[in-house]
From TrEMBL:
It comes from the Eukaryota. The keyword Signal applies. Keywords: Copper, Metal-binding, Signal. Residues 235-246 form the Tyrosinase copper-binding domain. InterPro entries: Di-copper_centre_dom_sf, Tyrosinase/Hemocyanin, Tyrosinase_Cu-bd. It holds the Pfam family Tyrosinase. Residues 1-18 form the signal peptide. One of its GO terms (molecular function) is metal ion binding. This is Tyrosinase copper-binding domain-containing protein.
Amino acid sequence: MHFLTVSLVVLWTSIVSAHSIPRASAAKCGKKLQRKPWHTLSTKEKKDYINAELCLISKPARLGLPDATNRFEELQQIHRIPASISHNVGAFLPYHRLHMHAHERALREECGYKGAQPYWDEPRDAGKFSKSVVFDPVTGFGGDGTGPDRCITNGPFAQYKNGLGPGYSISNPKRCIHRVVNDTVSLASGQAYVNTCMKIKYYIDFWPCVELAPHIGGHGGVGGKMLDPISSPGDPLFYLHHTWLDKLWWDWQACDLPARLRDISGPNVADPLFVPPNVDPAGLPVFFPALETFPPVDTLIPPPGSPLPEGDPGNVTTLSHKLNMFGVIPNATIRDVMDIGGPLLCYEYL
Ligand SMILES: *[C@@H]1O[C@H](CO)[C@@H](O)[C@H](O)[C@H]1NC(C)=O
Ligand SMILES: *[C@@H]1O[C@H](CO)[C@@H](O)[C@H](O)[C@H]1NC(C)=O
Ligand SMILES: *[C@@H]1O[C@H](CO)[C@@H](O)[C@H](O)[C@H]1NC(C)=O
Ligand SMILES: [Cu+2]
């Protein structure tokens, strides 16, 4: 439903003029980074990843983005600022693909991380998120929230406080990472829902399929900070969840590369009347978290000056749609991110 509240308040009245962005470097992709499921990583690989994330948290902000006090929060800001033009639109999957890449690059280039961005293979945990290894307090991201404020109380991020959110608002004092793990809501990350999406032929129907059940399964199954449609990258699990969604898109593309390396569509502007259905396209039920666990509606209104879509000739998402990374990495277009084995991204999924 938060996706609904966001779209309800989105109102675009103008099309901004395009100006050119430097294209991705023409360098070839050599050795691809191998993105693996979290549960297959060794304890050392898990620790290396988490330590690199803690390193991003320890690095000062450098881009001058409002309210971001460290590098991790700059990566959260580049999700928050354009949130209204990267959800419930055709750019949903491409935008998040580039965002995952920006995060992976920051870990590697700024924090000495040698691995690739891992993903949460959610179907193995669907319906039983509360037992997932991702919540391990020693080798994972800490457990469920407890107490009235639902703060996480163990694991490497228990001491971290984040001021970005709820929604577009700022918290002062900063808040803990909070979670409200819900096994029922996590059912939507199951294989049956993935299969529904994989059967779809065109992106125009594929993208909303992924944004419904699998997307909500992870955000709503973890709950709390992860359920915040604007500020959820304040919980490091965000990156494992969205990397899994990116893998779903790639798995689908790989079924018909000649067509699907170019298949992009969808609106550039979210439909203000969109109401997420409570069944997937195959009729499987999708359970939403309780309304009161979402951020307050008034925090989900995009502030004045929020970005507008750029780069397309009309109101439909095209390959020339621009993806603004706000200086964390260079901007790119959707064309640049269609192939994960291309020169810009250069990774593969195991
Ligand atoms: C989990 O979410 C479902 C669907 O919103 C809700 O009915 C149920 O009460 C929640 N469970 C817990 C333990 O909060
Ligand atoms: C997109 O633009 C066309 C032509 O101006 C218009 O007919 C159509 O209704 C628009 N679609 C949306 C979703 O705004
Ligand atoms: C990225 O795109 C934004 C929006 O078009 C633009 O303002 C910014 O200057 C671009 N950044 C770079 C480094 O080109
Ligand atoms: Cu998002």
